[in-house]
Amino acid sequence: MSAYLDTALSLASSGLPALPLRKGKVPFGNCPACAQNACGGRPNMKTPGPCVCPQPCHGWAAATTDPAVLCSRGWARAWREAAAVAYHPGGADLTVVDLDNAEAIAWARANLPATRTVPTTRGEHWLYRGAMPSSNAVRPGIDIKSLAAYARWLGPGVGATAALPAAVRALAVKEPSPDRRAPQTLTVPLRGGQAQCPHRTPVYLDRGIAMAEQRITEAREAVHATVYRTFLAVLSTHGQCGCLTETHVARLFTAAQAKGETARHCTDAWTNAQTRLGL
Predict the structure, then answer these.
(1) CA–centroid distance for 195 within its chain
(2) Is 135 in contact with 172 (CB distance < 8 Å)?
(3) For residues 126 and 223, which has the higher predicted lDDT (pLDDT)?
(4) How far is CA 133 from CA 27, 54, 88, 251, in A?
(5) Is the pTM of this model over 0.85?
(6) SS3 99
């Protein structure tokens, strides 16, 4: 048995969807039947594989926890030629903050909660419990790998895995492009602050934001309308007293973008909700 296959089976048994990487630490290319997505492919999958074909195709989407697939005849050549093993963090409800240099590590230590860390060739992987959209270059030397992405397996690391914080989710929120119709920064929710704050504890606000995130995430249709109505509900309850911060809004925008909304749509929906409420 290949040492890489043995590692993949161990990962799979612990709930981490695994896949082989070839030379260059990249996934194997599609097989001839799937070349150029001739098979229809599954490039937008939100859950791990296996692929519909008998080989580890479609990049990260091939990741699986099924030992029968990992040990199948179609995967044998890939394991013989493998140069590393990777896993799909989002498929295991994990997020990897990939810190590529010393400056990025220093920034993380000053701004993010401590969590499980894994040394890499040039930096560190910080692992958090919870999945989110993946995004590259969120800051200099920092990538986020979670849903629809793979991370190279470099060992279990050290430390306890912390829950995914809002500060990491906020990193993936893209700055909206300039638009004359509406303010294009996340400072829009800070218009409030004139009314007396009705919240006796931050838990009340946090619970409201979490419920709003869940409402958006669970939308199966009419996503635009759901996002707008959710923003309207949040602002009607929390928009007057000034308790909402950019971090809270970033969480809502991230949930909406995970459902396919653009940053501009999020900003427009938020601004329209403010206008309706007279904020």
Answers:
(1) 35
(2) yes
(3) 126
(4) 20, 28, 12, 12
(5) no
(6) strand
